[in-house]
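Per-record layout

source: Vreelandella zhaodongensis
name: Sulfatase-like hydrolase/transferase
length: 554
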Amino acid sequence: MSHLTSLKFTPWLPFVVIGACLGYAITTMTRLPWWTLFIITGLWLAISLKLNWGTSPINPPYRKTLPWSLLPLCLWGLYVYLADSFGIVDLAAVFFHLQAGITDHGGSGRMVAAVIYTISILGLLAAFTWLIHHDRRWRRVEPLVAIALLVTNPLIFGIGQRSAAVVTDDGSWLDRRYVEPQITAQENPPNLLLLYLESIERTYDDPRFGDAYADLNAIGEAAIVFEGVRQVDNTGWTMAGMIASQCGTPLMPAGLLHDRQFEPLSTVVPGIRCLGDLLADQGYRLSYLGGASTEFAGKGLFYNDHGFNNVYGLKELQPRLDDPDYVNNWGLYDDSLYDFTAAEIERLSAESEGPWGVVNLTIAGHAPNGYPAQRCIDRQGEWDGVDILYSVECSAWLAHDLLERLEEQGLLDNTVVAIVSDHLTMRVSVWDELTTMDRDNTFMLLGDDLQPERIIREASMVDVFPTLLDSMGYMPKDSRAGLGVSLLDSETRTLLERHGLTDINARLREENALQQRLWDGLAPQRRDADITPNKGEQVVESPGDNADELIISH
């Protein structure tokens, strides 16, 4: 047992490192409590010592080469980091942010975590290399370990699925169902206030979360409340949620279609017409206000390119604060943002130059802990810095308070108000509870001509787009726009009602033509006419494919 006292040949140290990393990975990807990490580490260490791993010298001596498993271990480390940060790893979100830009992101806390992860992975690689160099049994099976690590990694599986879309038999199934949005002018058109509440999903309206959602329920008493607005793939982050609800399509990243792969995107979804484009054509004056930087993830590009006259973010609004230091990692707190929003609505209303539209994106509910404003802390008491329900309650109350203020000032006359969560929340303090529930997004509408009711339908964020148009009196043709259906039309079924969430997500993984449509102008033109985005009549392959569908002319 002399090897136990030798620093050079101490097997328990690398096994502690390997066991701790293994335990952390398992607890991160499952619902096991954090303290099971120590149990897993202890079991691994006990097995290692029992089998005397690391004490079976290799004979004859061999040249010490790097193990095959080092790269697969790094890829697993990346996946665990992403899962720990976001809960559900969305490769499309990763690809989009890399191309759209992550300038001025607010994830400084995750940067610290990234450094810790990097150090841990380096320790794991060193420990595993030591094991391979000191145990011939492990050296023999190590190539198989490398293959197993690659095969079981969800990152590799996801990339493989997307790569398979290149040779799919039908890469235009969704594109054939895309309807070019069309609206006609009307007399006395209403204004629009569209409030995106960061990560405030309707799932929080559950007794196990207390009264965190109470203020939104209070708003809902006078609103049309929609239940069942699910999250399909490629709509699960802020830009994707906004594009889905304003353009009627999931956000499929430019990916390899982008003909300048090593340059940031110069425009966002230039190939389609969205809410801002349509309203601008009708004479609307449009403003976007968000507390975070407009340079992050292409938000400024999207709004500037799709009909908005004014685009305000951190850089534009911070100098106007009474206290310029009253900001968080991402940007302005919501109480400040709502003050600027109210002032912008007052300015637009005073101009009397036609209808206005204001889009607002909050930050209070942002994972992992949220950013409750000082007004909420004054009202709700001390915050522990962790409990996301505190931040949810803050976000809901501030939204309710804003609407009351605007109503008292008469600024919501002839105005449709839409309250929407941009996407389902990512990993937060109540993640284990949320992931056991039937989750859906917040979506409610208020307006002079909208009678309060509760509509329960299987829908997704793409259906928000035509529903907004319909609620404003701009009934889209056949109640359809993009891939969405107006949820105010009970006769026309949504994609999810016809095909289900699982089938739509499977179709998204195979789709090429819709991706080309979104990025028309950025992508090199393909010569294969079979996968060119369909600009004419909808094509149907078979009676089964056409089941319960309309033949649509664009």
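summary: Residues 1-9, 525-544, 550-554 have pLDDT under 50 and may be disordered. Strands lie at 191-197, 224-230, 285-290, 310-312, 356-361, 415-421, 443-446, 453-460, 480-481, 484-485.
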